[in-house]
């Protein structure tokens, strides 16, 4: 098994300089720790809790930022897509296209994404059982694309609360595809602050470590130099200056886990 | 308060004759019982559990069926939409456009729907608290459209199971908009049959009656002359020949509820 | 079917005068509305959220109060029991003995209660599926006692929250035993106030009406002349002066429900 | 921090020879791996799903078995208690007395247990939030006993299902008391087999490893030489012959976790 892949970046893209700053620091931290690195950033927050939430740079400007990160940092880049007609355009720049959790059963989006041939990372819906993901996978596979990743980002647990079920990781791994733990969205409190979502940032390293210990392929972490002033998902992002230590710590658990694989 | 509105029809449109058959029987049953009636049918099932599930007639053929139902039966018609670019076309025919539960936070879809000026019925996501619906409402209101309906269709309750929380109905009613109980999708068992969803048809009249007793504006019920051979949602649809008695029964509870309104 | 039974009283017994005051007002309200009435009061709150919560009068003093209510008001009385060795003593006074939800699977308590021959009302645990109640029933039946009632009081729904699943009522009714809706505990927010439980008093009439419309045997409602100063469960109790109107309203739904029984 | 404590044994005591066989093998496995060991066995299963389930040896016979294990194996022993009047007797033999999850809010039981001065291990109820455990702790502390352990054993997640929330472990650790992961009961499916509970044995090592990686004090695992013929909890017990490898594996994660403590 290959060493842990760290998918990290801000929740939403804020501009070229900001993206380069985060990507370069994360690339360095991952290199130092022996982790693989993919830069993550969103060009559009298409399902904000309320109208008051900022949407982002938009697809044109966003993809330019992504291209610059690829060129200057030399890492693969990931973004999330929201409609079928965005897929071809986004795939020209992004190495990994991500299906948002709410949209994980939208057949046309899955097919359009699959048809680009890019790697497709599907976030499991908060409303979906892990053993129902093979149906999602089959939709993408029907396009001939088998470059698929599956992400746990928490399941609905009463109102305004998610719970990350660790059983979900080995269950999704039975598909044979790489499994990702989204440590920051799993500690989201959807709608928990009235007009926006709350979060429990302090538990993101807890879930990341627990998941990495199970031998998963990748961890997804949103980070920001000043989460409390980030335009979205601030309550659950990890401060950028804590990331080098976190990645280093996770790599020790990753090495141990991959030397001693669980059989489920 | 006006008498109960019954939104009913098959899960997916199967053809003109089939739609007319169901619409005419439902219109007659509603007229006999003193209920208002809206015909419901889907032209596309955009989020089937698996690829093996039938998608439906498509937008062109589906809207022709809807127009025929309007013309021949004389009732308003409702369908669900899945992308922003469908909205204007669908609004030419349909009186009510429905936002699917999984898509209830997709800002662009809500805005495009709102801008048509049609009535917009939003199904509350299985992952959303009822007190978070004002954020959804505000997105539609931002278009100047205040013809809005809000529907309860069950909340995630562990895996493959939903629960209908009766508190959701008066909570959503605080927005001032009409509230709908979707009695058949609330008894769905998402993904519960592997490649398709299961359902507990026998509990749909239970939830319908409980909700109607609270004085709601409308009930949403999918029905079919032979649910077990319907192309989708068969396990939770109510057989068509049971609908006249059910509507009649619900109207008695509706009358009592509206003569004795709850104050929450 | 007989008219609705209203089981009502304060959460905990506070003294003879207080119990008589509530019992007499409730008896009058039930008589006026055509409802059956059972007085409810607890002599010990054995599972308070915290040590700071008042326990109550104790078994000796509590049973004296209960006997006085029986003698002076002429109604049956119900209390909850917590250990097997309380059963025989309590059964000398109380017509109905109630098994608390947390204790609904404690075999020895169920057997000791059953052996008294009193009516046993079991509250379904917040952690139990309604279709698992036949196992509980069988424990009591093994004593030869078939005077059993089954109560819905909400199921765990994430942390600090309950949800009342209306499907639970007809599911438990399949046992053949009378089913009760506990409208006030179902709106409890367990531990929701740190050192005590919160509650949503405003939704108790909502759940009561929804449940009564399904044709259940009884409704359980805690009431107090001044809930906010009650020693326990104040946040979910209904003010006593609202009970006559509530009972009258419920009786209208009860009559309609029993004239038109649901078949599940 | 001290090395991981492994609390292990059969669900219910079956006899002296059986207990000694399991205790000796577990003691050896723990010694080889550098783990601490406590033998666990129940003398009474007081809350079986149904009457058909075996109750166990009873308190007298059970305590004799426990005393023999202590004498011959030289390890501390743990058992669960169900009523206040059992506490003093059990404390004469057992080093750790365990409060069952359903009973974790029964004040009298907590007080009687605390008063013995034994170590008290409280299982968090399936219906309780982890941040509500300080109220439980305070009840025990009121007796002057501060030898307390707190165990996660899964939270209700819809019907017949539990989910183990990893956030619960650091949350309970904020009390300052040692935290235990019950890996086998957390994969129970309560009532999931009609007259008994089901389980997902294959996920117990998953939850154990994830939890141990967070730096907890102890792991609780039920084991049996032939789980499928065990008198209770067979579906979630781990076969005894797999325990040495599991303990060894967990100790590697324990060492890493304790060298790199999480700060929550």
Characterise the protein shown here:
4 copies of one chain form a homotetramer. By secondary structure, chain A is an alpha/beta fold. Helices cover 33% and strands 19% of the residues of chain A. Chain A has 8 helices and 13 strands. In chain A, the strands form 3 sheets. Chain A has an 8-stranded parallel barrel, surrounded by 5 helices. Chain A has a two-stranded antiparallel ribbon with strand order 7-8. In chain A, strands 10-11 form a two-stranded antiparallel sheet. In chain A, a hairpin with a 5-residue loop joins strand 7 and strand 8 (162-163). In chain A, helix 1 (16-33) packs parallel to helix 2 and helix 7 (204-212) packs parallel to helix 8. The first copy, chain A, is globular, with a radius of gyration of 17 Å. The two termini of chain A are 17 Å apart. Chains in contact: A-B, A-C, A-D, B-C, B-D, C-D. Chain A binds chain B through residues 46-51, 55, 82-84, 102-103, 105-108, 125-132, 135, 138-139, 142, 155-156, 159-160, 190-191, 195, and chain B through 46-51, 55, 82-84, 102-103, 105-108, 125-132, 135, 138-139, 142, 155-156, 159-160, 190-191, 195.
